[in-house]
């Protein structure tokens, strides 16, 4: 086991030497202290990670020693996120991946393997809500988009990464739901349903993948201050709704979600799988 780990480490560092164009930061990759970090020499693929919660998770996993592959729909956002994290000395590369597109998912997997040689963690953060209104007035096209991106894409991406996570021997998958899964937000019907489906997907996949030593858990954020939630946060009625229904006394920060994901990927969580874990402040109704 020790020899295999050493071989993997050496192979990765050889790759870095042979392909210097690779966007990983060499500073942290070659640092001795990095090997003592809890996610040292692990590789994490994170969708929807150029902004908000995903970006905070990317930064945190990299700070904890992982090589991180960030991704999102827009090249410009990927470039900015990679540049910012590399400036902090973190081992990060990036590629475009609109998770609803099969070819993009394939490219994400291919790029991660090409640059890192293996994948240990998959964190599926990308989620959309293109429609505000009545559930029964939601068009078929909108249903397909929401369920396709929020629910189907994580499962399909995971199926492509499965052999690699299995090879890792310590594979960990983290899905991202929402408190809207438990307490629906009005006018976000299809989104609420998609987030509830993720709770079930977590339970089902954790059972199926336990024999392969792959753990599957789910981060369930409350209202977190990101671009995605600005419309809600600025709506004073919604502020009252958050306090009344969720019991939350304040809006959370993306960084307050990231530590849990790092823990769930780490050996400290080796006996934790199939859990939907709420990060929403004080939440007596959840
Ligand atoms: N903020 C909250 O209050 C809250 C609460 C509960 C759950 N969540 C969930 O947390 C996740 C992240 O939300 P956030 O608040 O961090 O949003 P955000 O700040 O708007 O960031 C979204 C990130 O995802 C990327 N993205 C969007 N659609 C994508 C797609 N189809 N494929 C790949 N990447 C995509 C965006 O970059 P590009 O524009 O470049 O694609 C961006 O990097 C979502 O699943 C959301 O449902 C958020």
TrEMBL record:
<comment type="similarity">
    <text>Belongs to the short-chain dehydrogenases/reductases (SDR) family.</text>
</comment>
<dbReference type="InterPro" id="IPR036291">
    <property type="entry name" value="NAD(P)-bd_dom_sf"/>
</dbReference>
<dbReference type="InterPro" id="IPR020904">
    <property type="entry name" value="Sc_DH/Rdtase_CS"/>
</dbReference>
<dbReference type="Pfam" id="PF13561">
    <property type="entry name" value="adh_short_C2"/>
</dbReference>
<protein>
    <recommendedName>
        <fullName>Dehydrogenase/reductase 2</fullName>
    </recommendedName>
</protein>
<keyword id="KW-0560">Oxidoreductase</keyword>
<dbReference type="InterPro" id="IPR002347">
    <property type="entry name" value="SDR_fam"/>
</dbReference>
<dbReference type="GO" id="GO:0004090">
    <property type="term" value="F:carbonyl reductase (NADPH) activity"/>
</dbReference>
């Amino acid at each position: 086991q020790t020899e295999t780990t050493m071989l993997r480490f050496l192979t990765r560092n050889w790759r870095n030497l042979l392909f210097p164009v690779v966007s990983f930061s060499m500073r942290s990759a070659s640092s001795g202290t990095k090997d003592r970090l809890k996610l040292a020499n692990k590789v994490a693929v994170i969708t929807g990670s150029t902004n908000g919660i995903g970006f905070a998770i990317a930064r945190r996993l990299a700070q904890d020693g992982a090589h991180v592959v960030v991704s999102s729909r827009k090249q410009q956002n990927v470039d900015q996120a990679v540049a910012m994290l590399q400036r902090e000395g973190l081992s990060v590369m990036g590629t475009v991946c609109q998770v609803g597109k099969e070819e993009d998912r394939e490219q994400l997997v291919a790029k991660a393997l090409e640059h890192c040689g293996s994948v240990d963690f998959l964190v599926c953060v990308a989620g959309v809500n293109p429609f505000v209104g009545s559930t029964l007035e939601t068009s078929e096209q909108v249903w397909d988009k929401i369920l396709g991106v929020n629910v189907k894409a994580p499962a399909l991406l995971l199926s492509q990464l499965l052999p690699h996570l299995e090879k890792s021997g310590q594979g960990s998958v983290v899905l991202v739901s929402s408190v809207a899964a438990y307490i629906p937000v009005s006018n976000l019907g299809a989104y609420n349903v998609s987030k509830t489906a993720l709770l079930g997907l977590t339970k089902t996949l954790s059972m199926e993948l336990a024999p392969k030593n792959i753990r599957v858990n789910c981060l369930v954020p409350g209202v977190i201050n990101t671009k995605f939630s600005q419309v809600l946060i600025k709506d004073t009625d919604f502020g009252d709704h958050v306090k009344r229904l969720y019991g939350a006394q304040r809006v959370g920060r993306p960084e307050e979600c990231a530590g849990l994901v790092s823990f769930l990927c780490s050996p400290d969580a080796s006996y934790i799988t199939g859990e939907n874990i709420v990060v929403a402040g004080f939440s007596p109704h959840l």
